[in-house]
Amino acid sequence: MIDLEKLKPIIEGYKEYLPNHWKDEKYKWEAIQYFQDHWDIDAKNFCEMFKTATEKTFNLLASGYAYPRGMIVNFACTKTK
């Protein structure tokens, strides 16, 4: 369970940080909005829906050593026999 008392100062700190760093942080919020606009858990083609919903995540779902988006796409788009 999340300790809300410990989380509260972190959120407040981010609120203070964000206005001065919006230029660097904006893409994260845009990626979240894009995801929310394109997510449909009931989509007939989950693979295509997932790829579309996450296509603007850039480094948020990939890094130099981990590719969670790529792995989910791989698993979701692989047809089983």
How many H/I helical runs? 3
> How many β-strand runs?
0
The tally of domains stands at 1
Structural class: mainly alpha
Question: End-to-end span in angstroms?
Answer: 39 Å
Q: Helix amount, in percent? A: 55-70%
- Uncertain spans: none
Radius of gyration: 16 Å
Strand content of the residues, in percent? under 5%
Q: What pattern of helices and strands is seen along the backbone?
A: HHH
Shape descriptor: elongated
Largest sheet: none
Mean pLDDT: 94
Fold and architecture overview:
The chain is mostly helical. It has one domain (4-77). The chain has helices at residues 4-38, 46-53, 68-77. Helix 1 packs across helix 2 and helix 2 (46-53) runs antiparallel to helix 3. The protein starts with a helix and ends with a helix.
Q: Which secondary structure elements does this structure contain, and how are they paired or packed?
A:
Layout: H1 4-38, H2 46-53, H3 68-77
